[in-house]
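[job 4471] stage=fold_predict status=RUNNING
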Amino acid sequence: MDTAVPALAAKVYLVDAAVEVRHRLARLLGAIAGVEIAGEAEDGDSALEGIRACEADIVVLDLRLADGNSLALIETLSRLHPAIVKIVLTNHIARAFRDACNAAGADFFFDKTSEFDAACRTVAGIARTQRASP
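[job 4471] inference complete, writing structure tokens
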């Protein structure tokens, strides 16, 4: 009889105004061992509600959302749920945007056009680390 406890998956929540991007991310990230796509949203208010409801471990979000930008969401998550890893994946890559995201509490910042794979590898690494932790 196998008494091993199955490894828990890292719950990832996707926040992007573009449904196509969310679906692509869900397909790529969902194929990673130890990653569960826990939900998705196109705006900050829906995202915050969904992130809290599913108890997400990682949030991958675009800077531009359907209701504006994600800086307030990043700040709220950083303040109320600091353990959640916040990964910004955006086309808005100017230094000022990166600095604003870092100031709001983003843990990682990636260029959607050239670092999509790097963002996916980062999620995979976080999931591996999480599974290895007791």
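[job 4471] summary: The CA atoms of residues 43 and 67 lie 5 Å apart.
[job 4471] exit 0
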